[in-house]
Fold this sequence. Notes:
The chain is of the alpha+beta class. Helices cover 53% and strands 19% of the residues. It has helices at residues 2-7, 10-69, 72-75, 77-84, 92-111, 137-148, 200-212, 246-258, 295-343, 363-379, 383-404, 406-423, 426-442, 451-468, 493-504, 538-550, 564-577, 604-607, and strands at 116-123, 128-130, 158-160, 164-168, 171-182, 192-199, 219-223, 229-232, 265-270, 273-281, 288-294, 448-450, 473-478, 487-489, 512-521, 524-531, 582-588, 592-600. The two termini are 33 Å apart. Mean pLDDT is 77; it is low at 382-408 and 557-563.
Amino acid sequence: MIKWFRKMSFRKKLLSSYIVFIGISFLLSCIFITNSMKMSEKENGQYMRQFAQQVNLNMDVIFSNIDRMRFIHLIDDKVKAAVRTDREEKSPARVLEDDDYISRGLNHMTNMNQYVLRAVIVNEYGDVYSNIQSEDTGYLERLRKIESLQDWSDKHKIYYTGVYSEKINLVEYPLVTGISKLYDIDSESPIGTIYVDLNFSAVRELLDRTLGSQKQGYRLMIFDTAGKLVYHTGMKNDSMWGKMSLQERNKVRKLVSESTGENGIFNIGIEEEQATGTIVKNNETGWKILAYTPRNDMIAFGIRNMAGITVATGAMLLAAIFLGILLAGQISRPVTILARTMDNVDQGKVKYIDESEYYWQDEMGYLLHSYNQMGKRINDSIEKIYIYQLNQKQTELKMLQFQINPHFLYNTLNTISSIASLEGIDEIVQISDNLSNMFKYNIKGRDIVPLEQELSHVKNYMGIQAVRFPGKYEFTCKIPPELCGEPILKFLLQPLVENSLKHAFIRMKAVNRVVLEGERQGEDILLSIYDNGVGMEPEQTERLNREMEEMDTRTLVTNVDKGIGLRNVNARLKNFYGKEYGIRIESCLEEYTRILIRIRKIGEEKNA
Length: 608
């Protein structure tokens, strides 16, 4: 493989390398898109869970009206007196008056709620009060039969029937009836029963509107406590439940019946395809809400979200391939010409290249020109002098680089630290190690570093100051551990800490304190450097804050030549994070100064 690559022409090497680079970029793009799709599916599942919980909350609001209506006898003494008295003990006038009063009260409460059609109270003596007069005794017989099968040991229990059809004033409605017992404050046994009929068609319309308002294509199934399906998406035209086989229906019913409502996101086969779903239990009714969406729809939704990125990536790759082919030819042509010309060199005689024939004015043109110049020197018998001078210059450059190389400096400091450690001079060990770490930090090529590395840089600086001025400064770092891994711009904190030491303690106090703090505020991170130094006048603080605020993203760091600490850091903050970020100063004369640094969390594109 290596021999084959060596035999390739320069143009093919350049082009093949570029193709490999494009291939790797394409592979990384595919991995990114795949991971993005997975993340989109996960987020979609979380949104679906939130949607199901929102539907559950809407149902709580609807059915909570029944809970309020069962206290009608407690908020109206006249209703309570009428319910607690046997109709046989009342006079005919009293019977008519009580019937009319309770009927109007129930009618008022039902009119206040768009979902309630009818409310019926049956007291312990069998007397019936309702907002709708009806001769249908079968209605109460069916409900009493259901009521007799329930456990009423819990005074606060409300039992909800499934959805059934019933005529009210000759109009047939799908109803859900809430059954609960009526208790007086001083009684242990019920004084009656209240039946509240909800118009489930209005509930369905609300659910349809809720489904129609979301764009993700989520679908719903709602099962009552008996496992009967009472609502599903597209119920009118039976577009979903009707397409499912009996085996699929039983599988869904089993899944719902076994669920506690806290299962999270799961996969299930619905409509002969895989779907992602979640189940939420409504505590008010005991019903279970199944929200789901076919995986194909979820993938299609993710693709639609990623379509712009995919098209842009494809277009960029095609453009890169085209430019690669074009540039490979442009770069390799002068090299080929130069190579062919050099092949014609005979017995040290250099053949010149006619520069007027070519139009290159870039590095390649300069290369051809340099070749002609070198050929002239060779032909003038000064080749040895030229080579000598060139080697001499390169040697001098290498020596100069070696002398100023920071690696040489901190390696030398490490040597000093080792010798001092052997001799037992701890102060030299500390200051050498701290200075070595600072040199090492300075030469790192990355502009973005974790906050913990920037804090280590500050601690190394304060360690040096502690050796230089023993007991003079007290430094405290109160950065929460969860912020230490956050990436930030390099060299933000140490210049400001140095600025505090330089200006804050011109008059020393008993304790010269510097405190470094940090906290997260939404998507932003707020860092502060506090000192208990001499502080500043309000006018000076206001002037500095105004100057910090007036800097914008066009401010060049190299032009900020005064007040290098504050102004330099502030200019870099605004250049990198945006004009809304930067430094703000709080100060009180003779008490303290606090420098506040607001930055935002760096995304993947900045931290790359």
